[in-house]
Amino acid sequence: MNPFPFKSKSSDPMLMLFTSGTSKVPKLVLHNYAYPIGHSITAGLWHGLGPCDVHFTVSDTGWGKNIWGNYFGQWIAGACVFIFDVRGKFHAEELLPVLEKYEISSFCAPPTVYRMLVLHDLTRFDFKYLKNCTAAGEALHTETSRLWREGTGIPIREGYGQTETVCMIGNFRGFKVKPGSMGKPAPIYKVDILSPEGKPVGVGETGEICIDVSQGAPCGLFTGYYGQPDKTAEVWHDGYYHTRDVAWRDEDGFFWYVGRVDDVIKSSGYRIGPFEIESVIMELPFVLECGVSAAPDPVRGQVVKASIVLTKGTEGTEDLKKEIQNYVKHKTAPYKYPRIVEFKDELQKTVSGKIIRHLL
Questions:
Q1: DSSP secondary structure of 17-48
Q2: Integer Cα distance of 158 and 94 in angstroms
């Protein structure tokens, strides 16, 4: 008797995951049976895993990062998956002795977690087994990356993907890491940066990250939004899957994140990426977290607004606002500085730790 009477094709529906919903209502993403194989890129090329590795991904079981870091790709690579059960409120500092005690060789966490970890003295811990550190979920600020590398001696290799994909762009194993860069496209993904008119842009020009599906979808790309053919048609058209994320590519082929299409700020004819402004503000030692968004303006259309959480003991004064504004002017350009600075106790986030920008 056949113990497996049901046969599935790689194109058959396998599982569904909700998008994070940082800017709109979450959608239900449908993946087929080829999806697990696509995560060979995530675990093998990006995490750099092999049979002798102990891999630890910080993730809640209720979101796609858990699938990315604890299941298919890691199993295919033959790695040991380490699970840390957080009881009660999450405290990032609990993870540092865990990395040391359990001889973790590969560590992956959202930038939110890394931002919390670098607030502590990393040199107190012995990370002799740690070889690979990766981050995904949102863009990683270069200041966080610098502090982690100084404290551990290991660079953070960023990766990019969506609930709809596997790791499609990354600082893959063997690459020289460019701090702040998303990396280069995975081998099976043909990725272009397109203008609003759907034309490829040149080196240094910003545009939307799109996957060429004219010859078929690569392994790991979703099949559509369940029950929402209209939403699927919005992103699958003209031979491309449109990610709705904006980036630019340098002369070496590395991609650099700018922001979501809906998050790019249009002020007095300029297009301003929120991530660039956030990265500069995060360099200030008294800033714990920062979220940049657009605020309506009757003259300029939109202006840059910075919502900032300060470190403990720092008072949010008018003088501090001016210091932040002047710092951004000096580090970027006069038209990019935040005309509105608002100090907050916390920034609202999704369950996956991403800032919910439309609430800013």
A1: EE---SSS---EEEEETTHHHHHHIIIIIIS-
A2: 23
